[in-house]
Amino acid sequence: MPITLPLLLTLMRVAVIPVVLALFFVDWPYARQIATVLYTLAGFTDWLDGHLARRWNQTSKFGAFLDPVADKLLVTVCLVMLLQDAPSGVLAVIAAIIIGREITISALREWMAELGQRTSVAVSRIGKWKTGFQMTAIGMMIWQMPLLGIPIYDIGYALLFVAAALTLWSMVAYLRAAWPILRDGG
């Protein structure tokens, strides 16, 4: 299997996760802001690697597997570190909604693929909006400190509520699309 640029971008997204985690917790000036920049670059590669792979016809089974895994790992690790840093029941519920949805939809997609129905639960526009709000919210919360007097963390926290609502909406949409097959027992 050749290492293409799209696959390399996905691998780099996985590799940056422990760096973001470490920077989040070290007591260095601007460590969180550096973590945010790395997180943002990783989030951008989520779009870029797929775009390049399709455009250059460099898709692979391994890349198709690793891309969503990298995204879910990045989001999950960051949600857990944010929750550990500022524990609250509300943030715990939001993290559970987002992480729970990812587990549910991943399992649903795997099951549907076994039945040859993978396209019934393809990525939707709602899912793309969910990802955008989620990535933006988490990045702002990692940044934490106000920027030019703007309460970045608070805005990110509010956006995380929007992401959670879109998360639930997209999960319902996926389950609704799969319901005829689920109802019939596959």
TrEMBL record:
Catalyzed reactions per annotation: a CDP-1,2-diacyl-sn-glycerol + sn-glycerol 3-phosphate = a 1,2-diacyl-sn-glycero-3-phospho-(1'-sn-glycero-3'-phosphate) + CMP + H(+)
Topology versus the membrane: Multi-pass membrane protein
GO molecular function, one term: CDP-diacylglycerol-glycerol-3-phosphate 3-phosphatidyltransferase activity
PROSITE patterns: CDP_ALCOHOL_P_TRANSF
Entries under Pfam families matching the protein: CDP-OH_P_transf (PF01066)
Cellular component terms (Gene Ontology): plasma membrane
UniProt xrefs under InterPro entries: CDP-alcohol_PTase-I, CDP-OH_P_trans, CDP-OH_PTrfase_TM_dom, CDP_ALCOHOL_P_TRANSF_CS, Phosphatidylglycerol_P_synth
Gene3D superfamilies associated with the record: 1.20.120.1760
Transmembrane segments: 6-26, 155-175
Domain of life: Bacteria
EC top class named in words: transferase
Enzyme nomenclature, EC number: 2.7.8.5
Pathway, per record: Phospholipid metabolism; phosphatidylglycerol biosynthesis; phosphatidylglycerol from CDP-diacylglycerol: step 1/2
Membrane found in the keyword field: yes
Any one biological process term the GO annotation gives: glycerophospholipid biosynthetic process
Keyword Transferase: yes
Assigned keywords, A-Z: Lipid biosynthesis, Lipid metabolism, Membrane, Phospholipid biosynthesis, Phospholipid metabolism, Transferase, Transmembrane, Transmembrane helix
Compartment list: Membrane
Family note: Belongs to the CDP-alcohol phosphatidyltransferase class-I family.
Protein name: CDP-diacylglycerol--glycerol-3-phosphate 3-phosphatidyltransferase
